[in-house]
Design brief:
The protein has 500 residues and is an all-alpha fold. Helix content is 65%, strand content 2%. Strand 3 and strand 4 form a beta hairpin. It is found in: Cell membrane; Membrane.
């Protein structure tokens, strides 16, 4: 014990003498916080892990989810063709996305920045494992590669949705050419207009600089900088349009394109006369179930991090889907006398579509109401209205995705209201560095939502019509009557889904 005491005393004395010799060593080795520049935020492992899972879930929606959902709804002779179309679109768009799609959607486009990005990140130039992108919380980022992959899955599924509108009658070669043109000229600009912005930290830092400015010259310079930050965003984002996970970008966009395509291609041979029933509702049920599971990545993943808003988007994706499935089921039961599996599955997809733009903005009770309305409205569109107008939308892409998307986009402007259980309009400038609820006017927000819907319908509707016509004039859109009667499995691909 004596040795220990002597050793402790010696070390203590040496330390005291050292401090006397160099007083600065007695001070804290960490400078004052004000003198240290704020460290750049780094991704949290939890947020990164969640977004990797969400990305895989969205891929699950396309292959095999959408492929099986659509495949089961067509006739046996066209099952393999639908699987091939969906899988091929996913692979081709995946490559286009990393070549130039990500850059067109999520970079500054110079003079065209309101409508489309540029090529500064073509072939993922400048992106590496250390690159990060903003989320919706100040000081929170995720790896840019994760964001690229997540948004890639959205680009992959959107043109695949269009396939259902003209299933069983379009040439495979024409579909591939149309898809390449459509994602380049319509999808990427839409994604840019709705989702491109600088992020909360860029806005917050500019607002902080303005608040800290003391004289008129510095205030003007700071205000100009804040204005420039706010101007570096897509047209619809700057307008204030709310679209949490793709009501305009994905569903209305694909739905109206499909509707235009089915009108321009005409009806299937035998439509309205022959039985064109689904060949396997079992496959369709499997596909619809996978879509619901994958949609949690689609909606909850669109929050870009793991927090309470993510949980809100998840519960809304549960309850709106269930409400729409029940709504379609009982409306169909009341009007047609029997509750059908296909009706319930279609209702579930309608609920998923409708809640997509509202998932992170509405409250759970509002989402239930939205689901109940979506199920009933989409049923009427896919039965009464479709039969009255006589168009052949093979798998009800317009009635479910376009109409459900419109309903959800408009309802988002209502359900975001805090008085109705919504989270309110996000505001990053009133208290720089924080996310607070901004001013909300229901009528004004509804007008903004309606403008976003209208622009999407015009851009995708007119643009798709032009692209369909160009493809038709060059290689032709539709297979021959003989090929259609034989089935696209053999005519286009030389193989069958089933050999028995």
């Amino acid at each position: 014990m004596k040795l220990r005491h002597l050793l402790a005393l010696g070390l203590g004395g040496a330390t005291f003498a050292l401090l006397l010799a160099e007083p600065s060593l007695a001070q804290s080795p960490v400078p004052e916080a004000a003198a240290v520049p704020a460290a750049a935020p780094v991704p949290a492992k939890g947020d990164t892990a969640w977004m990797l899972i969400a990305t895989a879930l969205v891929l699950l929606m396309t292959v095999p989810g959408l492929a099986l959902f659509y495949g089961g709804l067509v006739r046996t002779k066209n099952m393999l063709s639908v699987l091939t179309q969906v899988f091929a679109i996913a692979c081709i768009v995946c490559l286009i996305w990393v070549f130039y799609g990500y850059s067109l959607a999520f970079t500054n486009g110079g003079g065209l920045n309101d409508f489309v990005g540029g090529f500064s990140k073509a072939f993922l130039k400048g992106v590496d494992p250390n690159s990060t992108v903003a989320t919706f919380s100040n000081g929170v980022v995720i790896p840019e590669y994760v964001y690229i992959c997540f948004q890639m899955t959205f680009a992959m599924i959107t043109p695949a949705l269009i396939v259902g509108a003209f299933a069983e009658r379009m040439k495979f070669s024409a579909l591939i050419v149309f898809t390449i043109l459509w994602v380049t000229l319509i999808y990427f600009p839409m994604a840019h207009m709705v989702w491109y912005w600088g992020g909360p930290d860029v806005v917050g830092n500019a607002a902080k600089a303005l608040a800290a400015a003391t004289d008129e010259a510095s205030k003007k310079a700071a205000q100009d900088a804040l204005d420039a930050v706010n101007a570096d965003a897509g047209f619809l984002f700057k307008m204030g349009a709310l679209d949490f996970a793709g009501g305009t970008v994905v569903h209305i966009n694909a739905g109206i394109a499909g509707f235009v395509g089915c009108l321009m291609m005409g009806k299937r041979i035998g439509y309205g006369r022959d039985l064109l029933a689904p060949h396997s509702l079992t496959m369709t049920a499997i596909g619809a179930s996978l879509l619901w599971v994958g949609w949690f990545g689609f909606n909850a993943g669109s929050n870009l991090e793991a927090n309470g808003s993510t949980a809100l988007a998840m519960i809304n994706t549960f309850v709106a889907t269930a409400a729409a499935a029940v709504s379609w089921l009982f409306v169909e039961w009341a009007l047609k006398g029997k509750p059908s599996l296909l009706g319930m599955l279609s209702g579930a997809v309608a609920g998923l579509v409708a809640v997509t733009p509202a998932a992170g903005f509405a409250g759970p009770m509002g989402s239930i109401v939205l689901g109940l309305v979506a199920g009933a409205v989409c049923f009427i569109m896919c039965s009464t209205v479709k039969n009255a107008l006589g168009y052949d939308d093979s798998l009800d892409v317009f009635g479910v995705h376009c109409i459900g998307g419109i309903l959800g986009a408009l309802a988002t402007g209502i359900l975001v209201s805090p008085a109705l259980g919504g989270v309110g309009i996000p505001d990053y400038t009133t208290k720089p560095g924080e996310l607070v609820v901004g001013a909300y006017d229901m009528t004004a927000q509804l007008i903004i939502q309606a403008k976003a819907v209208g622009l999407t319908l015009l851009l995708s509707g007119i643009g798709s019509a032009i692209l369909f016509k160009l493809v038709d004039l060059t290689i032709g859109l539709r297979v021959t009557q003989e090929e259609e009667r034989e089935g696209l499995d053999i005519a286009d691909h030389g193989e069958r889904a089933y050999n028995y």
